[in-house]
Amino acid sequence: MQAKLSVVALSVAAALAMTACGKKEEPKPAAAPAAPAAPAAKPAVVVKLGHVAPMTGPQAHLGKDNENGARLAVEELNAKGLEIGGAKVTFELLGEDDQADPKQGSIVAQKLVDAKVNGVIGHLNSGTTIPASKLYSDAGIPQISGSATNPKYTQQGFKTAFRVMANDVQQGKALGEFAAKQGVKTVAIVDDRTAYGQGLADEFRKAAEAAGIKVVATEYTNDKATDFKAILTKIKSTKPDLVFFGGMDAQGGPMVKQMKELGVKAKFLGGDGVCTPEFMKLGGEASEGNFCSLPGMPLEKLAKGPEFKDKFNKKFGAEIQLYAPYVYDAVMVMADSMKRADSADPAKYLPAVGQAKYDGVTALIEFDEFGDLKGGAISMYQFKGGKLEYVLTLGGPAAEAPAAAPAAAPAAAPEKK
């Protein structure tokens, strides 16, 4: 009997075991997929911009003016917190002093190349810009000048060279045409033998002679001289209606003062290099009534001009000397090109510079196939009562008739060699 019960018990146990084995387990709920990890933010990138100008010597006031324009632009860019290539960027300005000397210009250019800057703003003078541009070209570093006007700078075939203002061909032509409009029949020409001064004087001569003006004297000086009585005495004997000077304010101011002392009756005319407050300071009363030119339109006639002038004056506690608005625009065009290319790598953003269409302080900035500003205008000014009074604009899309009531105010930054 017990054996039978054992068999039955074993049978029941086996049946239960089989039933248990055949029963499916309820699937456990799948674990929720882990949220994808947020991509790690790219580390901030420092974008180094070189800036070169004479920070010592007779043109130091102009060099500081340029550098201030660049620094204002850099501060504004950093305040915006731009991202390029997925990373936040901080712009850093590396300022160098070339002393307006071509040899020193090449030395500091190589220094910036060795520092692996992402771009270069400058140089101020054509005489330093031209030799330095070869070094930047060889290194593939984009260079935008806000003041060098000699045509050779952009005619060397370097794809890295750009400028944001009219060149000397445009400016010299406008100066010659203006002299003719003033009824000038005879002119004496003086230049300082720099790339800027000589280049501008040569272009003025072409335009003046084409307009029927006779050149009665040609004299030369240098960009360090302050005594011009010998050449002015020679000029006085030719009795010209006008003395044209290709050079900077450090020479132009003393020259016009010495013209008055020697009794030279001719009017004085110069390019952007003398169209400064410093010229009036050095020339004193002898500056009164004379003329000069600046690339572009006066700041007060530009949509963004008054705001820029106010910002600049408040930031630096100083008036704009010459090229600061152009240098500011040069920095902004370079940064805009990096943003459009989404890269600060010189090789990657260089093509974007040539395709720029930037609404700057000084103009709508677009470059031609050489890297020159398209449609550069030239404005004429007269020194009156210690101020620069706007007279008229020649050339460019903004050309207009002489203002009935000239507006007193410095023009947008001009160019320099």
TL;DR?
The chain has 417 residues and is of the alpha/beta class. The protein has helices spanning 2-22, 60-80, 102-114, 126-139, 168-181, 195-210, 229-238, 249-262, 277-283, 305-316, 324-341, 346-354; strands at residues 45-53, 83-84, 87-97, 119-122, 143-145, 161-163, 186-191, 214-220, 242-246, 267-270, 291-295, 358-359, 364-365, 378-384, 387-394.
Instruction: Give the count of structural domains.
Output: 2
Mean pLDDT over all positions: 88
Read across the widest sheet, the strand sequence of neighbours is 8-7-9-10-11-14-15
The CATH superfamily of the largest domain is: Response regulator
CATH architecture descriptor text of the largest domain: 3-Layer(aba) Sandwich
Specify the overall morphology: elongated
Q: In CATH, what is the class of the largest domain? A: Alpha Beta
Strand content: 15-25%
Tally of individual helices: 12
Share of residues in helices: 40-55%
Q: How can the largest sheet be summarized? A: 7 strands, mixed
> Helix and strand succession?
HEHEEHEHEEHEHEHEHEHEHHHEEEE
Structure overview:
With about 425 residues, the chain is an alpha/beta fold. The chain folds into 2 domains: about 45-165 and about 300-365, Rossmann fold (3-Layer(aba) Sandwich), CATH 3.40.50; about 170-295 and about 380-395, Rossmann fold (3-Layer(aba) Sandwich), CATH 3.40.50. It has 12 helices and 15 strands. It has helices at about 1-20, 60-80, 100-115, 125-140, 170-180, 195-210, 230-240, 250-260, 275-285, 305-315, 325-340, 345-355, and strands at about 45-55, 85, 85-95, 120, 145, 160-165, 185-190, 215-220, 240-245, 265-270, 290-295, 360, 365, 380-385, 385-395. The strands form 3 sheets. The protein has a 7-stranded mixed beta sheet, with helices on both faces. A 6-stranded mixed beta sheet has the order 2-3-1-4-5-6, sandwiched between helices. Strands 12-13 form a two-stranded antiparallel ribbon. β14 and β15 form a beta hairpin. The longest helix has 21 residues, at about 1-20. The chain is elongated and about 70 Å long.
